[in-house]
Design goal:
The protein contains two helices and 19 strands. It is α+β, with helices and mostly antiparallel strands. The strands form four sheets. Strands 1-11-10-9-6-7 form a six-stranded antiparallel β-sheet, with no helix packed on it.
């Protein structure tokens, strides 16, 4: 009888332990899904900001020399939004740019009223100078790509922003969250990255990550944009089908002492060029074209309403 009671007691303990473990697993899954949903909500909020990617309405490439900027047809750099004449922009061969504002032009420079001549800081040389007009609803900044310079123009009233239909995702699936192994490259290594316009830039390439899926090994080359995270530009077997054809993006925290990088493809998302022709998105290097269906993360852009 003692042995029988002991056996019964052990069974009850085992059942209670199993139930507790199952409950803990459900709670962890629910917490993880909330975390991903919160990230996705933040992603949408960033896209919809007045100065977000959805507000892009122009990309005007510049050559060294001087050009008038504004919406009037006689301007050398004709914008689609803003005053007739904002001023004369002069770009040096060293990439230094100055804008002599037209008399009476109502513009804000980095949020403050401005007149006379101002220096334009490009995005690769620090925080870019923001020249705003139309009561602050529209603006431009100077960008540099592969040694060339352009004005990137935004309009908060652009249809791409005001009528944006939202984002579409695969269901959240923890099976696409991997504990990947980081394999560092020698310090200073770079990899050539081609953007949507065919420009090539040597980009810091600190290492690669290796992960396993369904018994097969896969790897991705990591990029370093200087923000403290690993950046991945990739394509996979869903590209051009369920997902955007050119690429998707993913960020990850650098490895700790154990050399592990968490790759969570549930946070994979579309590049700006999926929504606007006025971006200069990087394309995946050949090493980052996965022979694998990543059925996680952001899907193709939704169509705009008629």
């Amino acid at each position: 009888m003692t042995l029988l009671l002991a056996a019964c007691g052990g069974g009850a303990d085992d059942t209670a332990g199993a139930e507790a473990a199952a409950r803990a697993e459900r709670e962890a899954r629910a917490a993880y899904e909330r975390e991903v949903r919160d990230w996705r909500a933040g992603r949408l909020e960033r896209l919809l900001r007045p100065d977000g990617w959805l507000s892009l309405v122009g990309l005007h490439w510049l050559t060294p020399g001087s050009t008038y900027v504004g919406t009037a047809k006689e301007n050398g750099t004709r914008l689609s939004v803003g005053p007739d004449n904002i001023g004369m922009l002069t770009l040096g061969r060293d990439g230094r740019a100055r804008l002599r504002l037209a008399e009476g032009a109502e513009v804000l420079v980095d949020g403050e009223p401005a007149t006379g001549e101002i220096e334009l800081i490009a995005d690769t040389r620090g925080k870019p100078t923001v020249v705003a007009f139309n009561r602050g609803d529209a603006s431009f900044v100077l960008i540099e790509r592969a040694g060339r310079y352009a004005l990137r123009v935004r309009n908060a009233m652009a249809r791409t922003r005001t009528s944006f239909p939202g984002l579409d995702y695969f269901d959240i699936d923890p099976a696409f969250r991997f504990q990947a192994r980081f394999e560092p490259h020698p310090p200073g290594k770079t990899i050539d990255i081609v953007n949507m316009l065919g420009m090539v830039e040597a980009t810091p390439n600190p290492g690669r990550v290796v992960f396993e899926k369904d018994g097969a090994s896969h790897s991705l080359e990591a990029l370093d944009e200087g923000g403290g995270e690993l950046f991945f530009v990739f394509a996979d077997r869903t590209s051009g089908h369920e997902t955007y054809a050119a690429s998707r993006f993913l960020y990850a925290t650098p490895p700790g002492p154990d050399g592990v990088v968490v790759l969570d493809f549930n946070r994979a998302y579309n590049p700006p060029c999926a929504f606007t022709p006025y971006s200069t998105c990087p394309m995946p290097p050949p090493e980052n074209r996965l022979d694998l269906r990543i059925e996680a993360g952001e899907k193709k852009p939704l169509p705009f309403p008629e």
